[in-house]
Design goal:
Blueprint lengths: L6 H5 L5 E3 L15 E3 L5 E8 L12 H18 L7 E9 L6 H12 L6 E7 L9 E9 L5
Parallel strand pairs: 4-5
Antiparallel strand pairs: 1-2, 3-6, 4-6
Helix pairs in contact: 2-3
Length: about 150
Amino acid sequence: MSKPLLNQQISQINELIHLNPKGLHDPTPSGYTHVVVAPLTGNTIYVSGQCSYHIGDGGVRDFTAQLDEALANMVIALQAGGANVHDVTRINLLIVNYSEELLPIWSTAARSIWGEGPYPASTLIPVPRLAFNGLLVEIEATAVVITEKI
């Protein structure tokens, strides 16, 4: 959709709408969407930050492996709330010691989860550290599961 949604249109939607407005760069190669509009009817699921839980026992120290485990844990949490990855409207990605060399790793991981899209809205936040020593990435998600059609 290239035109802005009107309030009346928003109140009548019954599915997630993913928008990449003209005038903004194409976020698709980086694995996200600029705007996701959710319907007024549905269950909203908030998933706390998911990460690698094997760090404390001398586990995975590699960014890619931690990212894969964090995404797998996000999927488990979404399923527990009655959602799947295609219900995700927004993610926050926290990365320790972020550098641009990590972006292609994230993009590949996002494609492995969401395929060719549509992708959720996303914010990547570089951080100096996370809750436990050795953690390199944490992902929190918000999803909307539509409960009734308008």
